[in-house]
Design goal:
The protein has 350 residues and is of the alpha/beta class. It is built from 14 helices and 14 strands. Strands 1, 2, 3, 4, 5, 6, 7, 8, 9, 10, 11, 12, 13 and 14 form a 14-stranded mixed beta sheet that branches. The radius of gyration is 20 Å and the shape is globular.
C-alpha cells in the first residue's frame, strides 16, 4: 500500500477562488469522490481520513471555500461539479436542492434523522452549531461582558468611542452563512434595527470567516465578534483562554451543516457511501471528538444534542430548520431589502 500524502492546490479563476485538498486512493482499482465543503480542511479532515481508511480505493478530492463562493462555484461548474455538497449556509443549500440539483437518497442512516433535518430525502443535516458572541475578556471589565443583544446594545451606546472599529461580524454580502444568521436575527428580534444602527455607528468591521474574526480578537484588533460559528469559537477558546464564548440569553441561533448528493454526481456509489458514513454513529463521533462539531444524532453520549436543546421549555436555542421557510430567506427581493438596509447602515472601516 503506497504511502498517503496530501496535496494542496490553490485554484483561482476570475469568479471563484478555492483550496483543493486530495487524499489519493491507497488501493486499485480506484474511483474518485469529489466533495465541495465550507468546513475548513483541518476541521473536516479527521472525517475524510477515517472514510479513506474504510474505503481505501476511493480517491478523495475536497474543495474548500466560503459558503457563498462554493454556491457560486457549484452553479458555475454545472453540469460537472461535485458528487457531494457540504455547507452551513442552509438557505443556499436548500435553494440548490429546491431548484433540482440534488439526487434523492434513502438509507437506514438518512431514515433515522429527525424530520427537520431531512427534507424529501434530498438534503440532510449532519451537525449543528450555535451562532455566538465572542469577546476578548482582557479588553472589557467582567461586568461589561454582554450576555444578550440588549446588553450588547447598551455597551455599544455607553462605550461608543472606545469600541469604534473594534466590533467584528461577517460580511453578509460576501459570506453565505453571515447572511443567513443576520437574516434570521432580523426575523427573531425586535432590536434588529437598533443593533444594525449601533454596528454602523461603531464602524463595525466585516470579515470573511469565523477564523479571521477570532484571529483579530486574539490579536486584540477586535474586542467583540458577533455571530461567530460556535465550533470555531470553542476550538479557539480552548487554545486561547483570553477568548470568552457567549450564548446570547435572549436567543441563540442554531445552524445546521447540511449535505446533499448532486444530481450530476459522477461517482454515485461513493457519494452514497460518504453520506451514510457522515450520518453514521462512527462518523458523528469523529466529528464531535476530533473536529469540535456538534453531532446531529442524539445517541452520541457525552454531547448536548440539538434534540435535547430544543426540548427545553422556554429555551434560548432557536434552530433554523431544513424546510420551505428557508426560501423566504433566499428570496432575491427580500434579500435585496436586507442588503440595502445593511449598506445604508454600515460604514466602511478606515
Amino acid at each position: 500500500m503506497r504511502k498517503l500524502f496530501l496535496l494542496l492546490i490553490v485554484l483561482a479563476t476570475n469568479l471563484h477562488a478555492a483550496n483543493l485538498f486530495q487524499i489519493p486512493a491507497a488501493s486499485s482499482p480506484s474511483t474518485k469522490l469529489i466533495i465541495y465543503g465550507a468546513a475548513d480542511y483541518p476541521a473536516i479532515s479527521p472525517l475524510l481520513m477515517a472514510f479513506h481508511r474504510k474505503y481505501p480505493n476511493i480517491d478523495i478530492e475536497y474543495t474548500e471555500g466560503n459558503t457563498l463562493k462554493l454556491y457560486q462555484k457549484f452553479l458555475a461548474d454545472q453540469p460537472n461539479g461535485p458528487d457531494v455538497m457540504l455547507s452551513s449556509a442552509m438557505d443556499l443549500q436548500f435553494k440548490l436542492v429546491n431548484d433540482g440539483y440534488a439526487r434523492p437518497y434513502l438509507s437506514s442512516e438518512t431514515e433515522r434523522l429527525p424530520h427537520w433535518a431531512n427534507w424529501r430525502n434530498e438534503i440532510f443535516g449532519f451537525t449543528y452549531e450555535p451562532a455566538v458572541i465572542v469577546v476578548n475578556r482582557t479588553l472589557l471589565d467582567s461586568a461589561d461582558i454582554p450576555r444578550s443583544r440588549s446588553e450588547l446594545l447598551t455597551l455599544l451606546r455607553r462605550q461608543n468611542e472606545s469600541l469604534r472599529g473594534r466590533i467584528g461580524t461577517f460580511d453578509i454580502e460576501r459570506v453565505g452563512i453571515g447572511y443567513l444568521t443576520w437574516a434570521n436575527d432580523r426575523q427573531q428580534t425586535t432590536s434588529y434595527g437598533r443593533l444594525l444602527e449601533a454596528f454602523g455607528n461603531s464602524l463595525a468591521r466585516q470579515y470573511p470567516s469565523s477564523a479571521s474574526m477570532l484571529q483579530s480578537l486574539q490579536d486584540k484588533e477586535l474586542t467583540i465578534a458577533y455571530n461567530v460559528l460556535g465550533s470555531y469559537a470553542n476550538s479557539w477558546a480552548k487554545v486561547y483562554p483570553d477568548l470568552q464564548v457567549i450564548l446570547p440569553e435572549d436567543f441563540t441561533t442554531l445552524v445546521m451543516r447540511s449535505a446533499f448528493i448532486s444530481r450530476s454526481a459522477r461517482n454515485l456509489e461513493s457519494a452514497r457511501l460518504f453520506v451514510d458514513f457522515l450520518l453514521s454513529k462512527e462518523g458523528q463521533r469523529i466529528l464531535a471528538d476530533a473536529s469540535n462539531l456538534y453531532p446531529i444524532r442524539d445517541d452520541i453520549s457525552g454531547y448536548e444534542t440539538i434534540t435535547s436543546l430544543i426540548k427545553v421549555d422556554d429555551s434560548r436555542f432557536k434552530p433554523i430548520y431544513l424546510d420551505l421557510s428557508l426560501l423566504a430567506i433566499s428570496d432575491q427581493s427580500k434579500k435585496q431589502i436586507i442588503l440595502d438596509e445593511w449598506d445604508s447602515a454600515m460604514q466602511s472601516y478606515p
